[in-house]
Design goal:
heterodimer, A: 4-stranded mixed sheet, about 60% helix, B: about 170 residues, alpha+beta, 4-stranded mixed sheet, 4-stranded antiparallel sheet, 2 helices, 8 strands, about 20% helix
Chain lengths: ~525, ~170
Amino acid sequence: MSWRGWWTPVVLLAFAVVFTWPAAVTGDVPGHQPDALGTVWFLSAAPRLLLDLTDPLTGFPEGARYGRPDSFTLLVLGQIFAFIPAPRLYSLLLVVGVATSAWAAEAFARALGARAPWSLLAGVAFMSCGLASTALLEGYGYHALNPWLPLFALAWLRATSPGGTVRDGLLAGGAFLLALLTTAWLGLAATLLALGFLFGGLFRGSLAWRAVLAAPAVLVLPLAVYVKVFIDGGGATGSGETGGAIAIDNQMVMTAIRLAGPGLSIDVDGHNQSAAMPAFALALVAAAPIALREHSRWRTVALTGLGAGLLAAAPRLPPETWSSLGRIGELIGFSLLRFPERLGWAWVLCAGAVGARVATGLGQRGGPAAYLIFLVAIVDVLLVMRMPWRQREASGVVPSAYAAAEGPVLDLWPEELRGLPAWALRTTNTACFYQSAHRRPIADHCLLTYDAASPRVTWSRWLTDRLFVGDVAAAEARLAEVGFATIALHGDYFSDGDRLRLGAALAQIDAAPAHSTDGGEAIWAYAVGAP
Amino acid sequence: MLPLSAAQFVVASELPQEVRLEVVAECQPNNLAIEVTTQWLGEARTMTLRDDGVLPEDRARDGVYVGVWTGETARSLPLRLSISATDVAPTEVSASTETVAVGRDRIVWALECEPQWRARRVAAALPSRSLEMVEATGVAATLSWLGLILAYLAWLLQGQRAPAGDRP
């Protein structure tokens, strides 16, 4: 029975539904970490942000400027699909992203000589890797909305091969740009592929220069605009971070843990971070030198992938190394390379494609026994990578207390006394997620950086202080003057004493606050300036 | 009123939530009692964890103290864990705010007495040595799995000639 072309997307869609489960059916928000809530807000805010990256509904009263969003692609998708509720859109993008990315990787494998159904292994390897599961679990699912990297690899491989056409070069340039606009990490991974394939072509002495030069011709102008926006937006967001201060041997241990299959404790201690490669893909690519003896393009692809994999696993250099390179060095070292394992996308893509090429050869000569590799891949995804079993969901419901009034809201959460960023990220992402549905202005800045506190924290710190000292009337007058209409008390998270004292003080502002316990929280919404 | 569509607020399932709390007691002083308090959607709750085998999946006197809370879906729970025993004054051993998943969730601590009483979050209700063993076994199993696949591929490759035309 011959393989029909339309079976490939159907099978990969089924794989995506299983791998991202329950994203296909849920109205809640898939993800372990609060980043998922922030991503949902970003989708909802896209129509406001698309024009000039400013948002009057967050960072109230000044409004907020988001000069350096991680994903411009997501911004466009949020605008196009603004008619779908943002939590639902986020879930659907996970499914569609995994399916299309796997399909594109499958096409790349076919360009390398793999044949269906064996080429499916490339798609499954690409989207069942640790980086993909981490993106889905941690809540930045747009990293898995990644057909651009394989499409770039496909077009660039052709452009750097004998017979490459200008069209191949133009397509490669376009796909590179889309990868970069999806997230800077994919742009960096694509850069490694670009260099590797180019050197491969140079080594063979068979470059079609017109095809090769067509790609930068597409890229120059958009890339210049991108870099300007990136730097104007405060590119080096991690400039205060000193990640390189971790001893190199400790870094290597952490890298080894991330490269191994996700252990039992990873979702408690490891922040869901895995960079593991499916074992079936690793084994297939390891067999390539024996199975694919004849010298051909697979070596270029495999060596490029291996180089990217080694870079992804390399320890981070000390901060002073980057500082010596000035502003650009800080940008690359502190900001872009905070998570170097994400360069591993290029490794997984190349290894999966070469693996599929090996499987094709085995399948053509190995008879029915070779089909066992598909069972191995299923076991790998379900039992070794443990997806979708590791996934969980946060409530997609927004507390109804927000609907009791109109106007700007000041969310009042307690502060994490140890100053750990996790609590600040959780409260900000939650408040922004609520904003995606209640649509009222809030004080939070929704794309937090490590070295900046949300303006909401400053406001709530000031208000809490005023309420505790009994300066209630003046505080209310100040809030009314600024324009806040509601104080939303997130009472569950305060200690008993603080909650009682705050409640008593706020009762002087509004004796009958709106109260709700839906949306996963008890909220008391006090109307500022109520008669 | 706000221009809100009801669909934006009620899009998710509103099934009851079940949160199972487990504490693995590495030390077992006489008459150990473990108590957990929280605020669940504005309601103060207190529960004593038990090791009497009454709850499902609980074995009596195995050192794992268990309790289950149910209610409307909560996003996060502030949890304070305290212990007391014959020779141990009431002591708070953990205070944290834990995110809880929609539907069923399980939060596990390991209770340690050295160098002081404290409880730390762990992945499974196993004594720390067993947990380390499970983790190490997992790594070994992954490596063995990789070896098994390599052996399978070697078997497939055995006797086969290299492809004459692997050039794409």
